[in-house]
Specification:
The mean pLDDT is 78. By secondary structure, this protein is mostly helical. Helix 1 (3-28) packs antiparallel against helix 2, helix 2 packs parallel to helix 5 (110-126) and helix 3 runs antiparallel to helix 5. It has helices at 3-28, 37-64, 73-88, 93-98, 110-126; strands at residues 68-71, 128-131. The protein has one domain (1-25, 38-131). The radius of gyration is 17 Å and the shape is flat. Keywords: Membrane, Transmembrane, Transmembrane helix. The chain crosses the membrane at residues 7-27, 39-60, 81-99, 111-128.
Length: 132
């Protein structure tokens, strides 16, 4: 493992911790229905940036070795779109549409939205495939 990769791995972990603190601080005292729009941006931006630092360097290195990098559109559609919908819909949307007693209403909680942001970030970076 190269020095640059090790530094990027440490930096991405630090970014992830900072992102979690920012998200937690933002959710701490906020009622669920008053989530500002900057939180949506933060929930998506931090994991994508942190995973991108780790995975982006690997993809660049493999491309330099002569391998082709392809994007798996099916994975993005099947995993990315649902995750993006969960993250960006306003709190209370699933409860309004499906009812408060349904399991779908659990997707309105901040924890589910943060987990969906990580799901989206992992999907974006895992959708890149390397082929000979």
């Amino acid at each position: 493992m190269g020095v640059v990769r090790r530094v990027l791995m440490v930096a991405s972990a630090i970014l992830m911790i900072i992102g979690l603190m920012v998200l937690t601080w933002g959710f701490r005292d906020l009622p669920i229905d008053q989530r500002p729009e900057w939180m949506v941006v933060q929930m998506v931006l931090w994991p994508v940036a942190a995973f991108g630092m780790a995975e982006g360097w690997r993809l660049v290195r493999l491309a330099r070795q002569g391998l082709r990098v392809h994007f798996d559109r099916l994975r993005l559609v099947c995993h990315g779109i649902p995750a993006l919908i969960i993250v960006t819909l306003p709190s209370g949307a699933f409860t309004t549409w499906m009812g408060s007693g349904s399991m779908w209403s659990l997707l309105d909680f901040p924890t589910a939205k943060v987990m969906a942001a990580f799901w989206l970030a992992a999907t974006l970076w895992a959708s890149w495939e390397v082929r000979p």
